[in-house]
Structures are given as structure tokens and as C-alpha cells.
Amino acid sequence: MTKLKASTQFINVLVRVSGKPGEYVVVTAPETPYVTQRDTVINYQLYDTGGHDIIFTSATFTPPNNDQLSDWTISPSGKVLTFSDANTKKLALGVTLHFADPSGLAFLHDPQVQNVPEN
């Protein structure tokens, strides 16, 4: 029997939002994903929102228009934000996650993604 090696690495980042409107605190786990394989898919998933129906609304990347991160997509529920990372260069990339609560209050969180290509 042939053993197949997965062609795409997936990194799932759990996102917890706590607090109250205007004072939300966002924590991601892992805090900084370390990407080691090329063409890795990164999923940010809201798993605990402290009873508030928080959703992702968008994401921005720093530096903008880089050649490492793809355009992002958001699931129909608003609970998962996904993009891919080419991971061809060793560098840190800024990711700004944009959120909204049920009243439309917008807020941000700025984690990083660390590219560490294996080859």
C-alpha cells in the first residue's frame, strides 16, 4: 500500500473574544502561527465569543500587496476566515482581523504570521 503525504498543510488558529461592547479582548491560539511548508492554508476560527454573536468582516495584511498571502475568504456563518501562505520567504507578516458584533460595532486584532520555509 502506498502512503500518501498530504500536499497541503493546514494551520487552524482558534480565536476567543471576551469582554463587552467597546472593551472586547481577542486572544488567538497559537498567538503567532509558524508556517514551515509552502502553500499552507491558515484558518482563523471563532470558537468562543463570550455569548456575543461576533463575526469576521475582513482582514488586511502588512505589507499590503505582498507575494506571500492570498486574498482572504469568510465562511457564510462569519465564524471562519481563511487564506493561504506561499511561504517562499523567511519573514513576519502582519494580519489584521476585522470583527463586528451584532450591533455593528467594529473592532480589530493584529496577530502575525511567521514564515519559516523549510527549504
Q: In terms of structural class, how would the helical and strand content be classed?
A: mainly beta
Beta-strand fraction estimate: over 45%
The CATH class turns out to be: Mainly Beta
Number of helices: 0
What is the CATH architecture descriptor? Sandwich
Uncertain stretches: none
Q: How many angstroms separate the termini?
A: 28 Å
Sheet having the most strands: 5 strands, mixed
General form: globular
Describe the structure.
- The protein is mainly beta.
- The chain has one domain (10-115): Sandwich (Immunoglobulin-like), CATH 2.60.40.
- Helices cover 0% and strands 50% of the residues.
- It contains no helices and ten strands.
- The chain has strands at residues 10-18, 25-29, 34-35, 40-48, 55-62, 73-74, 80-85, 91-100, 106-109, 112-115.
- It has a five-stranded mixed β-sheet, with no helix packed on it.
- A hairpin with a 5-residue loop joins strand 6 and strand 7 (80-85).
- It is globular.
- The two termini are 28 Å apart.
Summary tags:
Immunoglobulin-like, five-stranded mixed beta sheet, 119 residues, mainly beta
Write a brief caption for the model.
By secondary structure, the protein is mostly beta strands.
Topology:
Layout: E1 10-18, E2 25-29, E3 34-35, E4 40-48, E5 55-62, E6 73-74, E7 80-85, E8 91-100, E9 106-109, E10 112-115
Parallel strand pairs: 1-4, 3-10
Antiparallel strand pairs: 1-2, 4-7, 5-8, 6-7, 8-9, 8-10
